[in-house]
Amino acid sequence: MKNFPEDEDDFFTGRPEDGRKIFTVSEVNRRIKELMEAGFPDVWVEGEVSGATRIATGTVFFNLKDASGLLKCVIFPQTARGIKFELKDGDKLICRGGVSVYERDGRYQLYVRSLEPKGLGSLQLALEQLKKRLEKEGLFASEHKRKIPYLPSRIGVVTSASGAAFKDILKVAAGRFSGMHMILYPVKVQGEGAAGEIASAVREFNVYNARARKNERVEVLIVGRGGGSIEDLWAFNEEPVARAVYDSEIPVISAVGHERDWTLCDLAADLRAPTPSAAAELVVPDKEELRQKLSRLTASLRAGLQDFTRSSREDLDALAHRMQMSAAHYLEIGASRMDSAAKKLRLLNPKAMLEQFRRRVSELSGRASTAWAHLVQIKTAVLRSAAANLNGLSPLKVLSRGYSITFSAAGGVIRNAGDVSAGEEIRIKLHDGEITGQVTEVRGNGGD
Questions:
Q1: Would you give the distance in Å from CA 128 to the centre of its chain?
Q2: By C-alpha distance, which of 298, 323, 247 is closest to 405?
């Protein structure tokens, strides 16, 4: 540091007038400025922030103070724009810059070229401040999270085209369920402009969905990249990215490759995956597991139908038995009543009355027999109709009409032409037996 001149004549260079050296105010301020800039061209200063103010031009004014002193500071707009965090009174800062004099006011101040929070890093402090503000607005609220669709037909991916993230997603998806439709929107994932590209890609997918037909829409988005330092991942901590993910009508899985730390994109997304590969596992089901589950469901359904058929037949047999017993019971009651009437007639003794009652009893007996016989015929017809309807619902009956069921070599039911390939063995179930064969050609409805 340059020493101040000790000799007065070395300091003042004004012209003598009447034996006196008289200077203008501007001359004194200018000389002090030169001395300040020469003595403190590049210094580090530690202190506590007070009176922080940002004016319309973007220039920031504040004071640095300690227990016994105060230093005025200024940050010009170009430097202020690069500061990631917000200056607040009470913050502990370490500032770097040069001391000079603002000649108009004769005020010396530190012109700050860079600064950092004491203790907590500037990026981390900026992240914590932004996180609290967005959380207060509700961008991370659990009630806003949407369910990720199961087995989506189209998956959108927002990541770098040259990075490993998209390759990992494709590899995992192909291994779990080949043929999944992936749509890549290539973006920068770090550096200047990366946050804007990521946010724009999320919005563009939503614009596409608003115009596309339902069967062509993207059902879920994976937004992410591979791992890196906090500086490498910073684009996913930018406010535009968090807001774009929150506003997305398409469910979003954030897959920023960092196991330990969560980015703001992770917090705003509907689901967070620790890596791009893990995101692919979350959104793409395993085809083999689905086939096994389908086979179990098919076997369960077949067993259920068989149990239902057997139970229905048993119920019909029981109903028929009860109807027969009921008819016999009614006939026995009628016969008993006729016997009782005959006894009464015999007790009355007059032959004419007795004969009349005998004819009446005989007539009633015949009508009762006819009525019950007719009732039995009706109930029997209803029973036969129900049995015929049940038999018509039997899978074996369907086979007897010329239909068949085709099974793969693994025992699964084949429903679509795409379920088999040429050369595979198949088993065809008919009404009276089975046929085993081999596929020579596969054609869909369109002839493919």
A1: 25
A2: 298
